[in-house]
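Assess this today:

___
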Amino acid sequence: MLYSLLSSKQRILAQNSSKLTKKTIRWLVALSSIPLFGIVTAFGIAPNTRSLEEIQVEEVILDLSIPDVLSETQTNHTFWRQENIRRGDTIAAILNRLDVSNQDSTEFLQAARGSRAMRQLKPGKTIYAQTTADGELLTLRYFFGNEELFLMEKTGDVFKMTEQSIELDTQIHMKSGVINRSLFAATDNAGIPNNIAMQLTEIFASEIDFYRDLRQGDRFTVVYETFSNDNGKRAKTGRVLAVEFINKGKSHQAIYFKSSNGADGYYTPEGESLRKAFLLSPLAFSRISSGFTNARFHPILKEWRAHRGIDYAAPAGTPVRATANGIISFSGSQKGYGNLVLLKHNGKYESAYGHLSRFASGMGKGKRVNQGDVIGYVGSTGMATGPHLHYELRVDGVQRDPTKVVLPTAPPISKRDLNTFQKETHSLVARLNIMRNIQLASLE
């Protein structure tokens, strides 16, 4: 009974002071045992006393003023609230869900008009706000971008806004997987972020054709980094630090290293660069619909003729990558090629990309591009029966089979960096070996 009465008292004290009526005060007189009103009441029944029914009860109603301490307690109490950003959200809608008063919402919106962060409301991210019980906004925090904090603090009646870089905590992860259906299905099953899976394909783009070369039972182990903010929530995914991919029984290992001159890349444990002058394919994932041959029946001309390139079947709009660093020597329409881009590379090499649906922005003649840059999109312009990319590699002006030409690689680790490379990569190689052994043990 005492517990029930105390609970009732607590519920009453929690009410807004403006809602306390004479009836409420009557209950406070009967129940209160706190010195707030200068009243102490004890509950109990002494031995040999009359029953409660025989005791006269007189109702007393007193008009008592509400002490200032109660209203001050309610006013000074603050709350931290949070709201996830929804698709199509506005900051005004979020402030409303955070129970910010109309006046403070209006003043905040005025103060934050030029804020970059308020223009980058990314669905899924969280906004944190400190408010009073009556909706006054005291503080608002939002981690936007990858490493930036938007902070709004109220000083007096003025909102002070800052946008600043933050230090993120780094975590190292080690994950393994086995190919059963596709690479991305395997990385999803292993809990590996899509960004890391894409990096994996780029690292081995000159070693493995991830459309034609994958086999069921292929295995991979990856060591990568993520970054978290001071709330412990992941702010962004970093880079792959080390990776091993076992394809058709052959092990491919790559270690990330940044040299003393600032250049970075992926190398074998022995220090050989994995970056070749040309990628194996201008498309990340596709299939060859027609190979390099001296005799192919042309589906439109209806005659046998040489096919001096490789056709990659892919949906219209698939991004097309430059297979090597170069300068655009031609960008436009050319007879049977349709929309065509020609790249001139160092020395004697050229590459051609035909049947494009459109060109990437800024891809005009004279534009310098880097290996992996998107230069256009798969289409079916020119003499094409369906969407695909026609790709050619030309050596001294003559088309050659890209799958059979031995292409140069980037230089290995320099002698002055070799000792540093070996020291820094020793632990990464050890991690790969540990994860490979654990994976093999689980498969037995």
Observations:
- The CA atoms of residues 222 and 243 lie 4 Å apart.
- Residues 168-275+411-444 form a domain with the Nuclear Transport Factor 2; Chain: A, fold (CATH 3.10.450.350).
- Residues 1-53, 64-74 have pLDDT under 50 and may be disordered.
